[in-house]
Amino acid sequence: MGTSPKTFVRDATGLVRSLGFLDQFLMSQSIVNPVLGFVLTALYAPYFFPGAYLPLVFVLGSIPAFAMAYVYAIFSAGMPRSGGDYVWSSRIIGPAFAVVQMIMLLATTIILGGAFASYAGISLLASQLFFALGVTTHNASLLTGATSLTTISVGYPVDMLLIAICTGILLLGLKGWMWVQRASFVLYYVVAAVFIGLLAFIGTSEGPTLFNNAMAFAGSTATYSSVISGAGSGGFSLSGFNAQSTVLAAIPWGFLTFTGFNYGTYLSGETKSVKSNITKALFLSAGISAVLLLGMSLLAYHDFGQSFLNAASYDVSTGASLPAIPTVSLLLSLYNPLVAVLIGVSFIVVAQLNVMGDILAMSRLFFAASFDRVLPTKFADVSERVHTPVFALLIIGVLWALWVSALWFAGFASTFLNAGLVEIFGYGLPFVATALFYFIKPDLFKATVGAIAKPGPIIFASIVAIVCFGFYGVAELFPIASGVFLGASIVYAVGFLAILVVIGLGLYGQAVYRARRSGVDLRAVYAEIPPE
User: Fold this and answer.
1) Of 495, 429, 397, whose CA–CA distance to 105 is shortest?
2) Which of 55, 264, 304, 469 makes an SS bond possible with 207, Cβ 3.0 to 4.6 Å?
3) How many domains are contained in the chain?
4) SS3 assignment, position 256
5) Is residue 14 part of a domain?
6) Using CA atoms in the order 491, 492, 498, 500, what is the torsion angle rounded to 10 degrees?
7) Spatial distance between the Cα atoms of 390 and 367, rounded to a whole number of angstroms
8) What is the pLDDT of residues 149-200, one digit of tens each?
9) Residues 67, 65: Cα–Cα separation, whole Å
10) Exposed e or buried b for every residue in 417-432, given b needs 16+ CB within 10 A?
11) 2 within domain boundaries
12) What is the spatial distance between Cα 477 and Cα 496, in angstroms, rounded to a whole number?
């Protein structure tokens, strides 16, 4: 007589609770990376929303971040399992919804992280390091190296190698990743202090001089003034305050700077004292990031002028040719060779920490879905030696590399924009579940998060997040500001969303089919919280 299959793949996950507050906080900071996040947002946001005032953009963008911090802290404590919002949504609304949500979040993470941590980490950050060193040491051959890192023949293999290294470190288990993260952040915080110190003490005349000298050494006729005048002659808004643009820019750009700060919650099943450690890590990380982003944007406006930062965004986004992309970090790197090395190396290192944090978090999504028997159970296998889901990590690393390859070969801007709507749903769908939890599963609510917090604040914070992501959609889809973010890419972006929905429903459909064939009752699976 045969035995009936277990509800879950096995009676215990095999994961070990080894992460503390420091690890959770550093993971959050490595993915937010407020200094680098500021640099990239200041480079691109002004073009898409002319007249947006960056200090206020960051302040408004922190609102959904704090709402997310509250909801994710409460739900991580109420259901402390690796897999995060997949576990919550699947038990609240149902597995089909949760699997589609999982695919949306996976796509969101790979698209954003692949674009800004991997692709920009080489084509922008590494390239700028070589350029700044070439200028500050008067070594023209380094300028050639800077240009080569933006090409497929050189930059792409380097990018793939770094992705392989990051995935390899994660395959060694959490202890190796924790050591790398802690060691790297010593460098990062030293450099962050140097970065902010330079912004605070550099003279308003030094920025233009550094830029002009660098362009001249690189053989360009561009100057600080010509960049501004060129954008102005193109009809671009160079200064002033546009309230409409500022509000609309706050969610797509202000909030995107914070995205991923909550990814430690996907490792709740591997975190000690979940309620205390995750709550403190999320709120401290969001608070520090908000203060730094506000302070750096005010200092950058003072040092380099809103007109130049806006003009630089216009110059880069319209494809104008300069020897190097004029980010705030590049301007500071031109100060001297030591500063160039400190900023360049630390930015590249922390970008790889971002890659590792993203891959790590998404592997736990696959692990949780596999543990529930939605994905093939192989992804739930955990190494007894290093206590990590090896196959889940490998598949996320491969998917990451595939997307980054598309960025290099199909073009960064078009590829990124053609998938530009997925972030709204990847980040927003979990809050639909948390907002409805108290109403549709009251008994489960009381047994889990209801033991920690009252329903009112949870519902309110969830609605705040949903409304903010609604603004995100408005800002991307409609020409309320003077420029449309997605423009002609809207058709492709909608099509990409539809494909992801089909993939998610298809995965759930095959799970139902496999469960019936093996005698597993999926309803019983989703009626319980997974074991530890």
Assistant:
1) 429
2) 304
3) 1
4) coil
5) no
6) -160
7) 10
8) 999 999 999 999 999 999 999 999 999 999 999 999 888 888 889 999 999 9
9) 5
10) bbbbbbbbbbbbbbbb
11) no
12) 15
- Letter for the amino acid at 136? T
> Is there a contact between 44 and 326 (Cβ–Cβ < 8 Å)?
no
Do the Cβ atoms of 218 and 135 come closer than 8 Å?
yes
Is the alpha carbon torsion for 361, 363, 368, 369 positive or negative? Answer: positive
Residue 410 lies in a domain: yes
If we measure between CA atoms, which residue out of 90, 80, 82, 101 comes closest to residue 449? 80
- The C-alpha atoms of residue 409 and residue 413 are separated, in whole angstroms, by 11
Whether residue 136 is predicted with pLDDT greater than 80 in this model: the reply is yes
Distance, in Å, from the CA atom of 289 to the CA atom of 279, rounded to the nearest integer, reads 15
pLDDT (0 to 100) of residue 384:
87
CATH at residue 299? 1.20.1740.10
- The tokens of 363 are what? 């592997």
CA distance 179 to 351: 16
Which domain covers residue 414, as residue numbers?
Answer: 21-525
Separation between Cα atoms, residue 408 and residue 414, nearest integer Å = 11
3-state per-residue secondary structure call for 171-236: HCCHHHHHHHHHHHHHHHHHHHHHHHHHHHHCCCCHHHHHHHHHHHHCCCCCCHHHHHHHHHHCCC
% the chain with pLDDT above 70: 97
Q: Is 50 exceeded by the pLDDT of residue 50?
A: yes
For residue 91, pLDDT over 90 is answered with: yes
Mean pLDDT of the 415-434 span: 89
Tokens standing for residue 298: 């005010």
* Listed range (190-199, 243-252, 406-415) with the worst mean pLDDT: 243-252
Contacts of 519 (CB under 8 A, 6+ apart): 4, 5
Q: In this structure, what token pair is assigned to residue 176?
A: 């190796």
Residues whose CB falls within 8 Å of the CB of residue 493, separated by 6 or more in sequence, listed in order: 417, 418, 419, 420, 421, 422, 486
Mean pLDDT calculated for residue range 109-114 = 90
> Cβ distance 513 to 379 under 8 Å?
no
Please give the pLDDT value at position 528. Answer: 82
Cα angle value 174/177/182 (rounded, 5°): 120
Chain-wide mean pLDDT for the chain? 89
Q: At what angle do helices 54-78 and 274-304 cross, to 10 degrees?
A: 170
pLDDT given for residue 480 in this prediction = 54
pLDDT of 332 higher than 80: yes
What pLDDT does residue 482 have?
Answer: 46
Q: DSSP string spanning 125-181?
A: IIHHHHHHHHHHHT-HHHHHHHHHTTSTTTHHHHHHHHHHHHHHHHHT-HHHHHHHH
Question: Among positive and negative, which fits the CA dihedral 470, 27, 95, 461?
Answer: negative
Domain assignment of residue 107, yes or no:
yes
Closest CA to 270 of 81, 8, 530: 81
Query: How many angstroms separate the Cα of 352 from the Cα of each of 33, 305, 349?
Result: 11, 31, 5
What does the block give as tokens for 412?
Answer: 């960064």
Average pLDDT estimate for 236-242: 77
User: What whole-number percentage of the chain has pLDDT above 90?
Assistant: 59
